[in-house]
């Protein structure tokens, strides 16, 4: 018997075309917004907020938005932090911080500082959300330097808005370059929703946002040192300035250094990172924030195995590692990634009057570096055979933009936001070739003495102009919340290479309607419907020559229905969802940590997410979650490798496991603390044709530690041990990308063996058992 979930809105829209879907949803949003703004006289009387309480609420928000709209933003579900006067953040936590009580009119899944502080400092935001119901996270290493990938409701992180403080960090694998885990206060995922005022061009899979540390009012800081498996060592220190005189300014500066070996085979990975934050507050509730980070990394690009290589390792122990021999083409120094990155976010929130506010959020990301791979051997100028390396060289990847918006309290029920978003992104890259250095290893592609040729050069980018408007209405003593919004995106994308230039203008209308109703203090229902899109990025277009048309935008219509309940002992959240996706874009892994996009037609995703957590009882805080997903491929797809039409219609969608489940348990007694978690992902298809699959698997982690009593200036001395893969499981956790079928060819390397042709997908594998010990303290 088939299992089918249909949201109420689906009953109305199921027989409509996609254009009719969009028209109906747009009209519904407009009608609700109109009625909400002008029906005040017919609404129940609500108690007006006093001026002092308005200023207090405004002061408690960040510069990302006005106090009255804070709880409606997809990335800022923490805006309603206080559900009663004097309540603490910890009182809203369940499962030891693995779940938080939410009130937004859409699904929100959050891990808080309580849980983050128990994890290893090398954990990235991806490691922290591994046990949330909507995501399957795969990471290639235990040092946190190489990022990872996300699957969510049948989509991937390339369909998500991966953000830090409301600004895009690019793909999930880049999160490790933006912020250190000690400076992350919380990580939230809104799997089915993205606020209309967010500066994102890819949010079909929702939003993942990391909230950075806000500097303390008091002078101090914290430091930690970690050592663990694979020769991991990491040092971190942060200094908080405290309030600087009577200026209202405070800030912090942090530095970290990480070193580790590759967990399989030869390779050394190193990372240096700086975070800087500053904040200025004014008495009327206005504030300004600044966050800047710098990251420099040199690491070995992992070799990802084919199915045959993985099976050989599992049954014989023979790995697919990089070689330790300098004369071998697959020498680990010939597979290097060198990257420098700067990230800047500077939001400003200005309270103009009691009813009017202005928000400005400029941002900048700039990266530069290169990746190398073996290219075989050829004769050098002296006539001797010498290994060569090929490069992906990024001369500069720049993303710059800003959002500006006005917020106005129309009356005691309605808050209107109107704004503009501008974004300009450019990628300037080339593909040079060089001889390997005499002692082995890839030289810088800028070193002319080793260069063979400069290779092709491509410049790709896009410019976005967008207008957005939304109205947030509260009625029935704030029990009923209605949020209607509309965003219109105008984009000009272009690509230039030696052979010519091409461009494409596109538009995307993005309506949204969210409604929640608090039945009482313990029960809430919510519904959300919206349109979202994904535009090929400058990096996507950089891998396509100008004789290949720029891909059409992916578009999604999404509906979500949810219910929440909580009491003094537990909290739970249940959400049903339905997605219809057209022009589905997936990505093929090319090596050198890069991908090429291609389109596979239409897909449908339906399912449910359920999460439940207990509050602390006798020191124990349990947590559990599950997702059921029925995702199907709705189109046949042409395979250019085999020159055949794949009969993929009706098959399980690629990289969309049907079942995922999680269990966690936290225990605290006096200074002792412990947390254990188990994650299960069901079988999934890893090819569009559905002819290659991976089985389900289980992963696990464990934390134990102790908080010692403070002494002298040492305020919170703590020792903890973090373990991953305690059972030593050898499992594939996900595909590196999409392939048409298991017959697609690719070049394969394995140890010191000669390169050969392999077939099908390549995979991330759960790293072997690891243990990390950390000592830390604040001061």
TrEMBL record:
* Any Pfam family hit: Plug
All copies of the TonB-dependent receptor plug domain together span: 101-205
- Identify the keywords attached in UniProt to this record, alphabetized: Cell outer membrane, Membrane, Receptor, Signal, Transmembrane, Transmembrane beta strand, Transport
According to its UniProt entry, the protein's GO biological process terms are: siderophore transmembrane transport
Bias-annotated ranges (Polar residues): 46-64
**What InterPro entries does this protein's entry cite?**
Beta-barrel_TonB_sf, Plug_dom, Plug_dom_sf, TonB-dep_rcpt-like
In its UniProt record, a GO molecular function of this protein is: siderophore uptake transmembrane transporter activity
Which GO CC annotations does the UniProt entry carry? cell outer membrane
**Keyword Electron transport on this protein?**
no
Residues of the signal sequence? 1-43
Asked whether the keyword Metal-binding is assigned, the reply is no
Subcellular location per the Swiss-Prot or TrEMBL entry: Cell outer membrane
Q: Which family does it belong to?
A: Belongs to the TonB-dependent receptor family.
Give the PANTHER family listed for this entry. Answer: HEMOGLOBIN AND HEMOGLOBIN-HAPTOGLOBIN-BINDING PROTEIN 1-RELATED, TONB-DEPENDENT OUTER MEMBRANE RECEPTOR
Q: Know the name of this protein?
A: TonB-dependent receptor
Q: Which organism is it from?
A: Acetobacter pomorum
């Amino acid at each position: 018997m088939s299992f089918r979930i249909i949201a109420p809105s689906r009953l109305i829209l199921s027989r409509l075309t996609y254009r009719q879907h969009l028209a109906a949803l747009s009209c519904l949003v407009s009608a609700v917004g109109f009625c909400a703004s002008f029906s005040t006289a017919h609404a129940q009387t609500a108690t007006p907020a006093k001026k002092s309480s308005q200023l207090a609420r405004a002061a408690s928000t960040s510069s990302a938005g006005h106090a009255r709209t804070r709880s409606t933003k997809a990335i800022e579900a923490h805006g309603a932090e206080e559900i009663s006067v004097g309540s603490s953040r910890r009182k809203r936590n369940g499962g030891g911080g693995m779940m938080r009580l939410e009130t937004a009119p859409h699904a929100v899944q959050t891990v808080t500082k309580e849980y983050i502080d128990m994890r290893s400092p090398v954990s990235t935001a991806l490691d922290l959300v591994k046990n949330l119901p909507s995501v399957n996270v795969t990471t290639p290493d235990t040092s946190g330097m190489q990022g990872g990938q996300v699957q969510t409701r049948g989509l991937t992180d390339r369909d998500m808005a991966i953000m830090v403080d409301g600004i895009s960090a690019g793909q999930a694998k880049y999160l490790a370059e933006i912020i250190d885990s000690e400076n992350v206060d919380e990580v939230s995922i809104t799997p089915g929703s993205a606020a209309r005022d967010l500066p994102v061009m890819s949010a079909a899979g929702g939003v993942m946002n990391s909230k950075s540390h806000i500097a303390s009012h008091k002078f101090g800081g914290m430091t930690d040192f970690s050592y663990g498996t694979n020769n991991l060592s990491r040092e971190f220190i942060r200094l908080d300035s405290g309030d600087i005189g009577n200026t209202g300014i405070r800030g912090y500066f942090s530095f970290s250094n990480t070193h580790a070996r590759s967990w399989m085979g030869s390779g050394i990975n190193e990372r240096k990172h700086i975070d800087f934050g500053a904040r200025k507050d004014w008495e009327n509730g206005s504030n300004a924030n600044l966050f800047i980070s710098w990251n420099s990394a040199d690491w070995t690009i992992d070799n990802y195995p084919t199915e045959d290589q993985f099976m050989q390792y599992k049954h014989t122990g023979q790995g697919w590692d990089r070689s330790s021999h300098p004369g071998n083409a697959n020498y680990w120094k010939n597979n290097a990634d060198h990257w420098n990155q700067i990230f800047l976010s500077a939001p400003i929130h200005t309270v103009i009057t009691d009813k009017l506010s202005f928000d400005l959020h400029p941002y900048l990301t700039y990266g530069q570096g290169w990746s190398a791979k073996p290219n075989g051997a050829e004769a050098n100028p002296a006539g001797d055979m010498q290994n060569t390396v090929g490069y992906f060289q990024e001369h500069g990847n720049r993303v710059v933009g800003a959002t500006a918006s006005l917020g106005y309290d129309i009356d005691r029920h309605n808050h209107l936001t109107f704004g503009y978003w501008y974004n300009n992104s450019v990628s300037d890259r080339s593909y040079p070739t060089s001889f390997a250095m005499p002692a082995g290893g890839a030289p810088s592609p800028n070193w002319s003495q080793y260069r063979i040729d400069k290779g092709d050069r491509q410049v790709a980018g896009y410019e976005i102009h967008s207008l957005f408007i939304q109205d947030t209405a509260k009625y029935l003593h704030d029990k009923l919340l209605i949020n209607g919004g509309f965003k219109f995106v105008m984009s000009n994308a272009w690509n230039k290479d030696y052979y010519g230039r091409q461009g494409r203008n596109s538009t995307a209308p993005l309506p949204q309607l969210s409604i929640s109703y608090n039945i009482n203090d313990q029960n809430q229902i919510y519904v959300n419907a919206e349109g979202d899109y994904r535009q090929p990025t400058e990096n996507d277009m950089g891998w396509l020559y100008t004789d290949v048309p720029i891909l059409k935008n992916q578009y999604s219509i999404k509906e979500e229905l949810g219910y929440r309940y909580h009491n003094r002992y537990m909290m739970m959240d249940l959400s049903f969802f339905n997605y219809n996706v057209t022009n589905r874009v997936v990505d093929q892994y090319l090596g050198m940590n890069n991908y090429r996009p291609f389109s596979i037609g239409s897909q449908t995703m339906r399912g449910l997410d359920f999460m439940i957590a207990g509050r602390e009882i006798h020191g124990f805080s349990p947590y559990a979650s599950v997702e059921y997903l029925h995702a199907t491929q709705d189109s046949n797809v042409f395979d250019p490798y085999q020159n055949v039409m794949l009969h993929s219609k009706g098959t399980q969608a690629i990289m969309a496991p049907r079942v995922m489940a999680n269990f966690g348990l936290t225990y605290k007694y006096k200074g002792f603390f412990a947390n254990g978690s188990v994650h299960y992902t069901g079988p999934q298809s890893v090819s569009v044709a559905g002819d290659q699959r991976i089985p389900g698997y289980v992963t696990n982690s464990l934390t134990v530690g102790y908080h010692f009593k403070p002494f002298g200036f040492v305020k919170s001395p703590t020792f903890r041990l973090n373990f991953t893969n305690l059972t030593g499981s050898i499992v594939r956790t996900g595909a590196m990308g999409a392939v048409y079928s298991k017959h697609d060819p690719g070049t394969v390397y394995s140890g010191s063996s000669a390169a050969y042709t392999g077939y099908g997908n390549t995979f991330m594998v759960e790293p072997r058992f690891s243990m990390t010990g950390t000592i830390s303290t604040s001061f």
